[in-house]
Amino acid sequence: MGSLFIRFAILTRNGKDAADYFIKRKISAAHFRTAATESSVTSAGSDPDQKPRIDTMENLAVAIGVSRPTLSRYFQDPDRVSRTSRARIEKGLARVDYTPNFFATRMNRKSTGLIGVLIPYLNDLFFTKLQQAIELAAMQAGFKVLSQSSHADPAVESRAIGTLASMNVDGAIVVPLGNGTDFEAQSRLNRRLPFVLADSRPKALSHVDYVGTEHSQSVGLITDYLARMGEPPIFLAMPRVNFNAVNHENAYLEKMAELNLPSRVIGTEEIQPGWHYEAHGEAALAEYFARGELTDASILCANDRVAIGALRAAARFGLSPGSHRRGGLRIAGHDDYPLSQFTVPALTTVEQNLDAIGAAAVKRLVEKIHGENSGVDHWVKHYPGTLKIRESA
Questions:
Q1: What's the pLDDT score for residue 48?
Q2: Whether the Cβ atoms of residue 388 and residue 373 lie closer than 8 Å to each other
């Protein structure tokens, strides 16, 4: 008892609020002794007003004066406890340093409140923007997001799919990587839990719910614009490593046939291993510019990242796309990559409505999680692209 009173004396000098808190809550002498010792150490530091730290829900329940099940129900949903208990818990939480364990509060629930998201690359701002749209929509729907990336590796993509399943997420939104995607792993995920594809829709997964851009419309839009405003556009492709690159190429060919104009596709082959985007666009066009070719051409690139490389190739050879200072070179892209408006010259492109795509993917996934049937075997939602006319074309 003597040591207990000594610690109490220390507390009254350095942490009176903490001492009052524990006394008012009638904590056992053993628990008080431990907490008081810890509090006396923190209170003697640079922050005398530091709240006492509590690490377990059991100790928190004792400190606040409510049962452990009542506290657990509060963290699951504050509306599940009485107003009196809720007020007591909130008042107690304001006086301590406690962070609830997310999984511990959901151990006995059918739902984890988690949505899994898998994107192909972390270093691509297009997918970062899409992930942001998904996260914001998920937050509004009352879910948290568990994010994974394929890192451009099919084996990593397969493991990430397994991770999402093992974490008992309530549902998953997946942007397929492209060539090498493990379709069977994604089909297993679709059989196991609610599943929605976003941005890209492989034929092998045509039975899975999907939301993305109507690429025939969006590519057709910019192809028509370039054809009306100058020379018939040439399509600068990229190595066929993802599904949308092929979709954009096919949409270009369809539109040019519709316009009864000659089509031409360049840059389909890999120039160097791993050169799929900016580096590919620069190297592919540089080969032509070095021979004095395509300097007056209209170039439609498979996407904005390829177009950024194409702009760099033009700059290296003293060309100014869209300016007509030296010839009629024009360069355009697709996607409205977040940096495309800040290139020099600013890139003409087609915007994909990523905010709408992310929100629609979450809305559909939440409907599936709650067992709401859309009335169709598989649900498909397309959004049109919007032309963004800037300096480069």
A1: 55
A2: no
